[in-house]
Amino acid sequence: MRWHRATLRALIREYLFVSIFRACAESLASENASRLAAMDRADRNIDEMLGTLEDALHRLRQAKIDEELSDVISGFKALRDQVDT
């Protein structure tokens, strides 16, 4: 009868250990899954922001090119008008 008590006590101790260990493992897994999801969202946001910035850069670059081209054409027309007169 004494060994039954010792065995029962050992089984309860092991059950508690396994239950606590499982809870800790599930908690860590859940935390890591949340971190991975957050990093994935951040990665997508960075890609979207990069696309937006690249579009803005291309528009600014094209505007600068158009401005310079307009200056060259205006200068050419002014020179041509001087030569014609």
Please summarize what this structure is.
With 85 residues, the chain is an all-alpha fold. Helix content is 98%, strand content 0%. It starts with a helix and ends with a helix.
Textual characterization of the structure:
- The chain has 85 residues and is mainly α.
- The protein contains 1 helix and no strands.
- The chain has one helix at residues 2-84.
- The mean pLDDT is 94.
Uncertain residue ranges: none
Question: What structural category arises from helix and sheet content?
Answer: mainly alpha
What oligomeric assembly is this protein in?
Answer: single chain
Residues in β-strands, percent: under 5%
Number of strands: 0
Q: How far is it from the N-terminal to the C-terminal residue, by CA?
A: 125 Å
Global outline: rod-shaped
Q: From N to C, what is the helix and strand string?
A: H
Rg measurement, Å: 37 Å
- Helix count from the secondary structure assignment: 1
Please give the share of residues in helix.
over 70%
Mean of pLDDT:
94
Q: Note the main sheet.
A: none
